[in-house]
Specification:
Layout (H helix, E strand, L loop, with lengths): L1 H35 L59 E3 L6 E3 L3 H13 L4 E5 L4 H16 L6 H7 L16 E6 L12 H10 L5 E5 L4 H4 L3 E7 L2 H9 L4 H6 L3
Antiparallel strand pairs: 1-2, 3-4, 4-6, 5-6
Helix pairs in contact: 3-4
The chain binds zinc ion (ZN).
Zinc ion binds next to strand 4 and strand 6.
């Protein structure tokens, strides 16, 4: 009788401890889930314990550090120059040459990869057309002035008009076109830069094949909050090594350059 009472007291204590352990572990999971903002990670009744790692804010991701496998390059090289809001390149002027005898110009150091890229598109059955390429600081200034004047018409443009114009036109020194390494490629049969009217299979082909010629999609839709632009036709030369890394890791140029800071 005595032995049975001791046994049931022991069993009760053991059960209580087990119960406390379960509660503690569940509230821990819930706290971690809430901290990461991932509601689905909280455990429902009868569900197996979550095995995936839920990272706490401010903690380092599991495994290697971000960008640990980045190419071993000198980021100060000419092919990595970033022109954008917050990184104005002033009156930077590359030496440019005509693209295939047209009135469009490109940095001489990257003209061969560009022509190879265009020829590959032709070989794949497309008819690439360079809509825009190199634009000087003063050409960019001219375009911005025009847009601001248009907004202000019939008055002279004010600062507010310029601010509005900069939502459509990059400021001088902040356009990728000024680097001499950016091109807007459309199909020759499309005369406007309207992505939805363009041949989607061609845009997809350009995206999937650009890296092997050293080009990246400069303004992907998903990176608009960083770059300020969404241009599915705008390709930019950075060299094969960087291009392959950028396209494989779904980065924009700003994010790539930041890996070297
Ligand atoms: Zn462009």
């Amino acid at each position: 009788m005595q032995a049975k009472r001791i046994f049931s007291a022991f069993a009760f204590t053991l059960l209580t401890i087990l119960l406390l352990l379960v509660v503690a572990s569940r509230s821990g999971e819930a706290a971690r889930a809430a901290a990461s903002g991932d509601i689905d990670a909280s455990l429902g009744p009868g569900m197996p314990p979550a095995t995936e790692q839920v990272s706490l804010p401010g903690s380092k991701p599991e495994g290697q550090e971000k960008g640990a496998d980045k190419p071993d390059i000198d980021i100060s090289g000419w092919q990595y120059i970033v022109a954008g809001e917050g990184s104005n390149i002033g009156t930077y002027t590359p030496y440019v040459v005509s693209i295939e005898g047209t009135a469009q110009y490109f940095d001489e150091r990257a003209i061969t990869p560009l022509v190879d890229f265009l020829n590959a598109a032709r070989a794949a059955g497309y008819t690439p057309y360079i809509m825009n390429s190199y634009r000087s600081y003063s050409a960019q200034e001219y375009i911005l002035n025009g847009r601001a004047s248009q907004i202000a018409w019939p008055n002279y443009p004010t600062q507010a008009d310029y601010d509005e114009a900069e939502q459509y036109v990059a400021a001088p020194g902040e356009s990728d076109h000024q680097t001499g390494l950016g091109v807007d490629i459309t199909d020759r049969y499309y005369s406007s830069m309207n992505a939805s009217a363009m041949d989607q299979t061609f845009l997809t082909w350009l995206r999937e094949n650009c890296a092997q010629y050293g080009f990246i999609l400069r303004y992907p839709a998903a990176k608009e909050s960083i770059t300020g632009w969404n241009e599915p036709w705008h390709f930019r030369y950075v060299g094969v090594e960087a291009a392959e890394y950028i396209m494989e890791n779904n980065l924009c140029l700003e994010q790539f350059v930041a890996l070297y800071e």
